[in-house]
Amino acid sequence: MFPELLSTKLITIHTLWIFVAIAVIVTTIIGINFAKAYGLKIQFISDNSLLMILSGLVGGRILGVAENYYAYFYEFSFESLIKTLYVWDQNISAIGFVLGMLIYLYYICKKNERDIFKWLDALSPALLIGFAIGHLGEFFAGINYGKETGLPWGVNFESPAIKYAVPIHPTQIYAFLYTVALVAFIIWLSKNKKVIELEKNGFIAGVTVLLYSFLQFIENFFRGDDTIAILGVRLPQILLLLTSILAGVFIYLRYNKRTKKSFRN
User: Fold this and answer.
1) What is the model's pLDDT at position 159?
2) 236 half-sphere exposure, CB direction, 13 A CA radius
3) Residues 33, 39: Cα–Cα separation, whole Å
């Protein structure tokens, strides 16, 4: 666990932010290549990249604070509100970051009459690769950690921020591995002849959201960090399952070839 890559009296460089920076750069480069393969104009994204990233940071911060509200609002005060603006505390949700970016992408696509589903198909593999890099950063930062385990690959984190002093599930590494596997599958799927011949865009994006959300849902069974719980179930886990179901409904409704008449029969 190396939460700080460099620490001096003047500056502290957090390892997580280095991985986030690498993730953004790699995602951008790979996203450009995929967008070109889909015949999309890169300038459309580059002209809006700054506001898109800012939208992602806002979305990531909002969801990050919501998931860990107890760390900010143990008492309601002006100081508590100000603390929510301290983005350097590394509490930025990756899912919230992507949601913020997607909301802005939807806005500019609608404004400029572009096919957002085609953009989502093109960017899905790149975003997953960015997530994979981010999961490694989470491991070194000691966040999003797992429950205690007796399995041989359990890890010890020597940090007061982690409530376990025994080996725990390296859930960040689990997330890295299943995300890399998902990247390989999505790239293979995008080259499948039947998928290429689909009349409507959005299939790749839909499958990506369905599978990644479901895998994150499974991962949460092994998570040990604190978050909001409803009837003993982690709130992020509930939201991930709902997201996966909605993605499945989207795929079914968008690509179901049966007519209403045949459905009634």
Assistant:
1) 78
2) 26
3) 10
